[in-house]
Amino acid sequence: SAATNTGDQSAATNTGYYSAATNTGDQSAATNTGDRSAATNTGNQSAATNTGNQSAATNTGYRSAAEVTGKESIAIVTGKDSKAKGSIGCWIVLTERGEWDGNAYPIKEVKAVRVDGEIIKPDTYYKLINGEVIPCE
């Protein structure tokens, strides 16, 4: 199954296995609950959420968020000032970007960490700041 949305302040939602929820509008949400599925968002200040096992939530927008709760899942953020969180056993991939250089926000660093419950806590958003994985609100 697929749910696709391109408008601002929109929502793309899917509940089937092997599914995709995709959104390109700002302040939007892409949500998926099926196993081995993907929730993807490219809009600024947007959210990509996935609860299925072995799934992915990705977000490329400025000040956006990605969240996963299914087993062996991954949350990836590549936008400036974005954050990610996951349940124990999930992975989060964080990107730190520099200031606007006239063409883009250049990538400074990328880190992947596993939510282990000790160093990286479950249900806590993290950002990459000065190369360090930092909890945030």
Structure in words:
The protein has 137 residues and is mostly beta strands. The chain has one domain. The protein contains no helices and 14 strands. The chain has strands at residues 2-5, 11-14, 20-23, 29-32, 38-41, 47-50, 56-59, 65-68, 74-77, 83-86, 91-97, 107-114, 125-129, 132-136. The strands form three sheets. A seven-stranded mixed beta sheet has the order 1-3-5-7-9-11-12, with no helix packed on it. A five-stranded parallel beta sheet has the order 2-4-6-8-10, with no helix packed on it. β13 and β14 (132-136) form a beta hairpin. It starts with a strand and ends with a strand.
How is this structure best summarized?
With 137 residues, the chain is mainly beta. It is built from no helices and 14 strands. The chain has one domain.
Topology:
Layout: E1 2-5, E2 11-14, E3 20-23, E4 29-32, E5 38-41, E6 47-50, E7 56-59, E8 65-68, E9 74-77, E10 83-86, E11 91-97, E12 107-114, E13 125-129, E14 132-136
Parallel strand pairs: 1-3, 2-4, 3-5, 4-6, 5-7, 6-8, 7-9, 8-10, 9-11
Antiparallel strand pairs: 11-12, 13-14
Please tally the helical runs, counting DSSP H or I stretches of 4 or more residues.
0
- Name the shape in a single word: flat
Q: Percent range for helical residues?
A: under 10%
Radius of gyration from CA coordinates:
14 Å
Question: How would you name the oligomeric state of the polypeptide chains in this document?
Answer: single chain
- Secondary-structure element sequence? EEEEEEEEEEEEEE
Proportion in β-strands: over 45%
- Average pLDDT, all residues: 89
How many structurally independent domains?
A: 1
Total strands: the figure is 14
Q: pLDDT below 50 for ≥5 consecutive residues: which ranges?
A: none
